[in-house]
Design goal:
Layout: H1 15-45, H2 52-60, E1 64-68, E2 81-87, E3 91-98, E4 104-109, H3 116-122, E5 127-132, E6 136-141, E7 153-158, E8 163-169
Length: 186
């Protein structure tokens, strides 16, 4: 006569299910935590934004002032820039906002680009000026060798993610300034 088979302990059959659900929760937590960290880290480590007085100093010496718009075809919900772009002989400034992000670089381009594909096509013609490190207003000093007269456009690009952020043409190819945007009446 064979002894009866022992009855399984309660909960033993559910152990693989518990392990699986815990691993799924851990994976979701890691993905969400990484995503939130990538978004918030640049904001947390950003230096203070330039003051109004600093922006006014750049604006007083500006050769060009144009609007940077957030509705360009290559801009997106997470990658955009908007405000008054100020291009001077020694600095480029934005009196406005840039979507927070990682590794934003500022370029001078001889060609107006408004998508990532256009940026990548013309990147070899561009001059990398510096880094955009603040998201509410910024000032980027130009290298001594930069000649704003040799270019027509300012471009912001996220090198970390390969994303187009924004662009604004400050002068036409013939050297004439881009017409300022029409004044809006309230």
């Amino acid at each position: 006569m064979t002894p009866p088979a022992p009855q399984p302990r309660p909960g033993v059959r559910r152990l693989p299910v518990r392990v699986l659900t815990h691993l799924q929760a851990l994976a979701v937590g890691l993905v969400l935590g990484t995503g939130i960290g990538l978004y918030w880290m640049p904001i947390l480590i950003a230096p203070p934004a330039p003051t109004t007085a600093q922006l006014d100093t750049v604006a007083a010496q500006a050769a060009y002032k144009v609007e940077m718009r957030s509705d360009l075809p290559g801009s997106s919900l997470l990658h955009w820039a908007q405000g008054e772009l100020i291009v001077g002989p020694w600095a480029i400034a934005l009196r406005g906002s840039v979507a927070p992000g990682a590794d934003y670089r500022l370029y001078l381009s001889p060609t107006f680009v408004q998508t990532a594909d256009e940026f990548l096509q013309h990147r070899g013609e561009m001059l990398q000026v510096g880094y955009v490190r603040t998201f509410d207003n910024f000032i980027v000093s130009l290298p001594a060798t930069a000649d704003i007269g040799s270019y027509t456009t300012v471009v912001i690009w996220s090198d970390a993610f390969g994303k187009f952020v924004g662009a604004a043409r400050y002068r036409n190819a013939d050297g004439s300034p881009v017409a300022p945007p029409p004044a809006t009446t309230s």
